């Protein structure tokens, strides 16, 4: 009935506000898999263009009246290519997971073997049996691990590739601490006739900000990503490549393959996000890394077991804590949630924690967007350390909220 509808609508509005309160006032978001959009990108998402048709190519749309939408698509793709120093950008990609599926479809056939990083170095399920690689019919063999570098072991990869003849080798993960040996992987791939896909779901921000080597420049044939993590754009995916044949295959996979109409509001928001990277990207990326390194050091100073302590913790916007002491990564995340910190578990090349993950992942994209800088790190690290060691983490929540409420202005965004 009408009354029920009103009640449900009110409830949904209240839940949206509750979510904003959790993420923007009550808690510090330490999760690198999310971000806040710039206000002008957020505004264009609700501008009404998203429900208009967009089927077909710019200049040759099926439905009429789409001149404006055509121009948005062209601008968005051009800006994405520019930001990633790529010749081609495929923007009609609904998510990072589907970016990987598009990449698998562009490089492999069902029945082929691929090599991908395992979960112990942050490998993502999309590259494996349960994810879109497996659903597309690919057989995934786990890459050998260089535990110190938190990456693929090149010596082991060379002999594995000779054994299993992969069609594709993937690099990049849900946690990336040190640069991956992309050029060496490309070398190995060339020797066995495989392609290289770099999954930059998380690294795209610091790649866009020129603070991490660009995998395309190092030889990756294509780079997939999520647009709403470190990139700070709308929820979606993106693929860039310098390879004209690859671009043509991706284009056909995007349309008429896997999408028909594609949300023009999302494309417009992505374009505005790319402008933020053009104008502020270098500073934002550098600051994300600086704050991550300071946070890792501050947490280690408080006797938390930060991973890779002997190697300087991290070279990226992410870091990890060895979570066995806290009952596992998800258990630690639930503890932190009570104290007002949002994070989640991750795999580390360490002994397993039964029933949980053995690492806790932390990242700085959202902290830095809200103005957290190195000078604020000691106070935040002290609260995190206390939350992970106290018996009553919920008692810290008011202190965390009071601190969080001081950071209410967005940084490194235009408009
Ligand atoms: N690849 C990696 C390495 C990821 O961490 C994620 C995270 O979710 C994905 C792909 C999938 O991205 P999305 O959530 O945008 O589908």
Estimated structural class: alpha/beta
Radius of gyration: 22 Å
* Uncertain spans: none
Total count of strands: 16
Major sheet: 7 strands, mixed
The molecules bound to the chains, other than polymers, are:
pyridoxal-5'-phosphate
- Could you state the oligomeric state of the chains shown? single chain
What is the typical, i.e. mean, pLDDT? 97
Strand content: 5-15%
N-to-C span = 43 Å
Shape: globular
Q: Number of helical segments?
A: 15
Main β-sheet, spatial strand arrangement: 4-12-11-10-9-5-6
List its traits:
415 residues; alpha/beta; three-stranded antiparallel sheet; 15 helices; globular; binds pyridoxal-5'-phosphate
Write up what this structure looks like.
With 415 residues, the protein is α/β, with parallel strands linked by helices. The protein is 45% helix and 14% strand. The chain is built from 15 helices and 16 strands. A hairpin with a 2-residue loop joins strand 2 (56-57) and strand 3. It is globular and about 60 Å long. The relative contact order is 0.15. Bound molecules: pyridoxal-5'-phosphate.
Question: Which helices and strands appear, and what pairs or packs with what?
Answer:
Blueprint: H1 2-26, E1 28-29, H2 39-45, E2 56-57, E3 60-61, H3 67-83, E4 88-93, H4 96-107, E5 113-116, H5 132-135, E6 139-142, E7 145-146, E8 151-152, H6 154-164, E9 168-171, H7 182-192, E10 195-199, H8 204-208, H9 215-218, E11 222-226, E12 237-241, H10 244-258, H11 264-301, E13 318-322, H12 329-339, E14 341-342, E15 344-346, E16 359-363, H13 365-369, H14 377-389, H15 397-404
Parallel strand pairs: 1-14, 5-6, 5-9, 9-10, 10-11
Antiparallel strand pairs: 2-3, 4-12, 7-8, 11-12, 13-16, 15-16
The chain binds pyridoxal-5'-phosphate.
Pyridoxal-5'-phosphate binds next to helix 4.
């Amino acid at each position: 009935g009408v009354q029920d509808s009103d009640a449900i609508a009110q409830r949904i509005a209240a839940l949206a506000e509750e979510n904003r309160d959790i993420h923007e006032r009550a808690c510090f978001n330490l999760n690198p898999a999310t971000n806040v959009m710039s206000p002008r990108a957020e505004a264009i998402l609700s501008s009404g263009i998203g429900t208009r048709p967009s089927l077909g190519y710019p200049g040759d749309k099926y439905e009429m009246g789409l001149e404006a939408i055509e121009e948005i698509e062209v601008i968005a793709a051009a800006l994405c290519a520019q930001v990633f120093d790529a010749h081609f950008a495929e923007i009609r990609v609904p998510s990072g997971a589907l970016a990987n599926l598009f990449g698998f479809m562009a490089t492999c056939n069902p029945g082929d073997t691929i090599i991908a990083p395992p979960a112990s170095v942050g490998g993502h399920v999309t590259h494996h049996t349960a994810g879109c690689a497996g659903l597309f019919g690919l057989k995934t063999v786990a890459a050998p691990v260089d535990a110190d570098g938190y990456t693929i072991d090149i010596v082991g990869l060379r002999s594995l590739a000779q054994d299993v003849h992969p069609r594709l080798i993937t690099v990049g993960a849900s946690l990336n601490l040190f640069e991956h040996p992309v050029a060496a992987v490309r070398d190995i791939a060339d020797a066995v006739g495989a392609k290289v896909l770099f999954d930059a779901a998380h690294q795209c921000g610091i790649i866009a900000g020129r603070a991490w080597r660009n995998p395309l420049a190092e030889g990756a044939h294509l780079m997939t990503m999520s647009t709403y993590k470190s990139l700070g754009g709308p929820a979606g995916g993106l693929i860039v490549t310098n390879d004209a044949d690859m671009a043509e295959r991706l284009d056909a996979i995007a349309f008429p393959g896997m999408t028909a109409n594609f949300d023009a509001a999302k494309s417009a928001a992505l374009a505005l996000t790319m402008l933020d990277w053009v104008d502020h990207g270098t500073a934002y990326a550098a600051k994300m890394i600086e704050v991550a390194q300071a946070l890792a050091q501050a947490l280690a100073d408080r006797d938390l077991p930060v991973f890779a302590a002997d190697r300087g913790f991290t070279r990226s916007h992410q870091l990890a804590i060895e979570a066995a002491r806290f009952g596992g990564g998800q258990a630690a995340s639930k503890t932190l949630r009570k104290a007002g910190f949002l994070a989640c578990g991750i795999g580390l090349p360490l002994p397993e924690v039964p029933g949980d993950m053995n690492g806790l992942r932390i990242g700085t994209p959202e902290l830095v967007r809200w103005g957290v800088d190195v000078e604020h790190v000691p106070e935040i690290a002290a609260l995190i350390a206390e939350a992970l060691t106290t018996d009553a983490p919920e008692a810290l929540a008011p202190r965390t909220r009071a601190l969080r409420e001081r950071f209410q202005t967005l940084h490194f965004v235009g408009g």
